Every structure is written in C-alpha cells, then in structure tokens.
Amino acid sequence: MSHVIRGRFAPTPSGRMHLGNLFSALMAWLSVRAQDGVMLLRIEDLDRARCRSEYTEQLIRDLLLFGLDFDEGGLSKPDRMGETCIQSERSAYYNEVIQTLSKKAHVYPCFCTRAQLHDVNAPHLSDHTPIYPGTCRHLSSEEIELRQTARTPSLRIEVPDKTIVFDDLCQGHTEESLASSCGDFVLRRADGIVSYQLAVVSDDARMGVSEVVRGRDLLSSAARQIFLYELLDETPPRFAHIPLLLAPDGRRLSKRDQSLSLESLLIRFSPEEIIGYLAAFSGLIQKPEPMKATELIPLFSFDRIKKDDIVLSPSFYHA
Ligand code: GLU
After folding, report:
1. Would 44 be classed as within a structural domain?
2. Ligand 1: which residue has its CA nearest to atom 6?
3. CATH code for the domain of 195
4. Is the CB of 136 under 6 A from ligand 1?
5. Is the CB of 244 under 6 A from ligand 1?
6. C-alpha angle 211/95/84, rounded to 5°?
7. CB of 11 shorter than 6 A to ligand 1
8. Which of 214, 225, 241, 255 is the pocket-test mutation for ligand 1 (most atoms within 8 Å of CB)?
9. Quick one: three-class SS letters along 28-95?
C-alpha cells in the first residue's frame, strides 16, 4: 500500500469563497505539501438549488490566485479514476454504496415529516439538531408498503450504541457516542439526494483520501463517517478539524459576510497579504506579513495551529 498522503479540499460551490473557506483550503494544502503528498479537489454540489458551475470555475481561479494548486480533481486534471469528482454526477455510485451498506447494517425507510422531527419536546443537541428517536426503525413490511403509497421516505441507517474514539490531529483525543450524539442518520433524503455523510465517505474512500483537514464545525460528523468507513471495510482517514474564523461578535463567517468576501478582500489586500493574515491567525507566524503559500510549507505543523476558534478583530473585519 502506498504511504503517500492524499489530502483534499471539498468545497460547496454555492457562492464565491469567503475567508474561512480559503483558510480551510490553505491548511489542507499546506499539510499535504509539507508531507510531499497528493492534493485533490472535489466539488460538493449536491444541493443543486444553491450550487452553480460558474461558482466552481471561480473557485478554482481563486485557489490558483492564492497559489493553491491541485494534483488531481481540478477541472483539467482528472482524479485517479480518470474523472473530475463532481458530486452531482455520482448518484449511481452513491446508490451502490447504499446497497453495500444495507447488506452490513439496518438501513430503513423513514416517513417522519420535518414537523415530527423538529418537535420541540424531542431531545435536541446543543446546536438544535434533533436526535432521531428511532420512530420508523421497526416498521413492518406491510406498514412500509402502505405508507409508501402516500409519501416517499428518506433512508436512515441504524447506529449501534457505540462510542467512536479517534485522535484528531488538531483537536486531540475525541470521543463521540453515535446513539446519543445523533441517533440513526439519513443516507438519502426523500427527494433522492444523498446525504453529506454518505457522499463524503463514499468519495473520500474511492479517491483514496488519507487525510481530511476541514473546519471544526464538522468535528461532530467524524464519528458518523468513521462508522460508515468501518461498515465499508475501508480505513478511515486521519482527521484534523481546524478552528473556525469568527466575526468580531462571535458569529461564524458565512458567504453573506461581504467585508470578507474575496471581492472585497482583494480590493484591500494583495493575495500574499491575505495569506500572511491567515498564517498569523492560525499561529504559523507571529505577525501578519505578505507571504506566498509555498513559503509557509516548511513552517507547517498541526502542533503550531491554534485549536480554539479565531475571533477576527473589528479593524480587520471592517477595514
Ligand atoms: N463541502 C463541505 C463544505 O464546503 C466540506 C466537507 C468536508 O470537508 O468534509 O463545508
């Protein structure tokens, strides 16, 4: 087996990148380049209503502007399966993976409505996500047939009462109980679109990804993903969940934060100045100074990257 690290950046092209997206791309790229690995790009455009191919093209232009290049998966550089990984084109493959999973675990149709799932009396996680109580887990085949005439179900996978333990390269020792952190989760929505968890594991496994660097907001997904890897007899990647960049009032950045959109930032700063700011925010350098991405490669190590979210100063945010 090859020991070359294969890392990836997997953006959702629902608008032009903001600073937080660029930060994730930079950290994933630096880790791969510091280990002489292979960097992949995957376009996560399952949400057809929000994603557009113009955004994908812009995204690749922006990444290259900041010196972040790809060895596989960029639009002119197919991945090792000879294709560019665009998730909206892979539904047949995802459905095969669901078939495989249904031979290994209990995958079942769920007819619950949004209103039932979001019932205020049901247990919720701190981020308000409802924990699925298992309502449809044991429906009889007659009940399933009857309900199917009135409503297309989603598909869920039953989770065991098991705690997943892993060492995150950035956040350290992490434990999460599948049953109490999310319950049985969705593999395919009622509208036929597969879930993020299913698509990401199917693709990372098929692309041979061995290192996943992404924002801390996805830390709670890692346990579900490791569970799917185990069912598929695949080795999970090493995970590094990096801090999020936050607005001065503590909010997470979004594509709506106009002052940090790449359009506005590139009016105020050169690409090298922006890379220098990101390097200083992350803890890689002491003070912001213009840097090329390649100049940061020898400095990179997860030990130097901050663990806690990074609150941007009002002067940077509004400048
Ligand atoms: N597509 C996700 C995003 O843009 C990232 C998924 C991942 O890195 O696992 O937030």
Report:
1. yes
2. 10
3. 3.90.800.10
4. no
5. no
6. 50
7. yes
8. 214
9. HHHHHHHCCCEEEECECCCCCCCCCHHHHHHHHHHHHHCCCCCCECCCCCCCCCCCCCEHHHCHHHHH
- Which atom in ligand 1 lies closest to the alpha carbon of residue 204? 9
Pocket of ligand 1, candidates 45, 218, 221, 224: which has the most ligand atoms within 8 Å of its Cβ, to mutate?
Answer: 218
209: in domain: no
230 in a domain, yes or no?
no
Q: Do residues 260 and 303 both lie within one domain?
A: yes
Task: Provide the number of structural domains found in the chain.
Answer: 2
State which residues form the domain around 183: 91-200
Atom of ligand 1 nearest to the CA of 21: 4
What phi and psi, each to the nearest 5 degrees, are found at residue 20? -65, -40
Shared domain for 265 and 297, answered yes or no, is yes
Q: Is the pTM of this model over 0.85?
A: yes
Q: Which residues pair with 212 in a beta bridge?
A: 239
Residue 221 lies in a domain: no
Coil, strand or helix at 22: helix
pLDDT (tens digit, 0 to 9) for every residue of the chain, 319 residues total? 568 999 999 999 999 899 999 999 999 999 999 999 999 999 999 999 999 999 999 999 999 999 999 999 877 777 777 777 899 999 999 999 999 999 999 999 999 988 888 876 666 666 667 889 999 999 999 999 999 999 999 999 999 999 999 999 999 999 999 998 889 999 999 999 999 999 999 999 999 999 999 999 999 999 999 999 999 999 999 999 999 999 999 998 877 777 788 988 999 999 999 999 999 999 999 999 999 999 999 999 999 999 999 999 888 887 6
